[in-house]
Write a structure and sequence with these properties.
alpha/beta, Trna Endonuclease, Chain: A, domain 1, two-stranded antiparallel ribbon
Length: 274
């Protein structure tokens, strides 16, 4: 206590001045902090409001997109339903047209069969009359049989120019080449854009007729070089095919065509093309 310095009035004033200075500085710092806090609060509030506006905007946009997508799906559903209905009506109309067409085709085919049958029966009656003639007329009868055979197959292919399900747009009976490279005549030729059928017609076929088909092929190739890339069927048409003829034709790949009732049919095996 003896060493303690006694404070003077000037010292008290100095201490008071320092204290006031410090308090003023603290007050000033506090005001600045308050301003800074207020500014930060306002900034946070502004950011919160901005985020809230963005959220509402995004929510509104999502709702608009949802409604738009729902409307688009509804329009697509209606269009698809309308398209299905139109397709159903078109399909129903097409089926009705096809049904009517089939009925017309069946009627036309039936009428053609009946006409062909009447024609065939008339020709068979004519043939029966020819067979009833005397022996002195056998030669004439044989010639008539051959003509009847040729006329029958020619008319059959004119009415239905198909073979093995393939349609031909040219039916040419008694074809003679012009110009001639090798002299020959072809009883009946069917032709389309890719295929040719050479048909020889005999009232009663023999084995030698099978062998002659290759001679016909050779002369046809020579006389018609413009069809060198076409495939060719070699065909023998007849009312009768003895067993040995059938065997020979099967060995050589020759097509045999025979009258069967109202129609003609292929009775061959091992059919080839050249």
């Amino acid at each position: 206590m003896k060493n303690q310095k006694k404070l003077t009035l000037e010292d008290g004033d100095a201490i008071n001045a320092d204290t006031r200075r410090i308090l003023n500085e603290l007050a000033q710092q506090l005001k600045e902090d308050q301003k800074r806090w207020e500014k930060e609060r306002k900034q946070r509030e502004k950011e919160r409001k901005q985020r809230e506006e963005e959220r509402k905007k995004a929510e509104l946009q999502r709702e608009e997109e949802r409604k738009k997508a729902e409307l688009q799906r509804e329009e697509e559903r209606k269009r698809a339903e309308l398209q299905r209905e139109e397709e159903r009506k078109r399909a129903e109309l097409q089926r009705e047209e096809e049904r009517k067409q089939r009925e017309e085709e069946l009627k036309a085919e039936k009428a053609k069969r009946e006409e062909s049958q009447r024609d065939f029966m008339a020709r068979m009656d004519h043939l029966d009359k020819l067979f009833a003639q005397t022996r002195e007329e056998i030669g004439g009868i044989s010639q008539s049989n051959g003509e009847f055979c040729e006329e029958y197959f020619i008319n059959s292919f004119k009415e239905n120019p198909t073979l093995f399900g393939e349609k031909y747009d040219r039916v040419m009976p008694y074809l003679y080449p012009d110009p001639v490279v090798i002299n020959d005549e072809y009883d009946l030729v069917l032709r389309n854009g890719t295929t040719i059928a050479l048909i020889e017609m005999k009232y009663k076929a023999r084995t030698k007729d099978v062998g002659k088909m290759f001679s016909k092929l050779h002369t046809y190739r020579a006389n018609y070089p413009m069809f060198k890339d076409y495939k060719i069927y070699l065909c023998l048409a007849s009312f009768r095919f003895p067993k040995n003829v059938r065997i020979k034709a099967a060995e050589e790949g020759i097509v045999l065509i025979q009258q069967r009732g109202e129609k003609i049919e292929v009775i061959s095996e091992n059919i080839r093309t050249w």
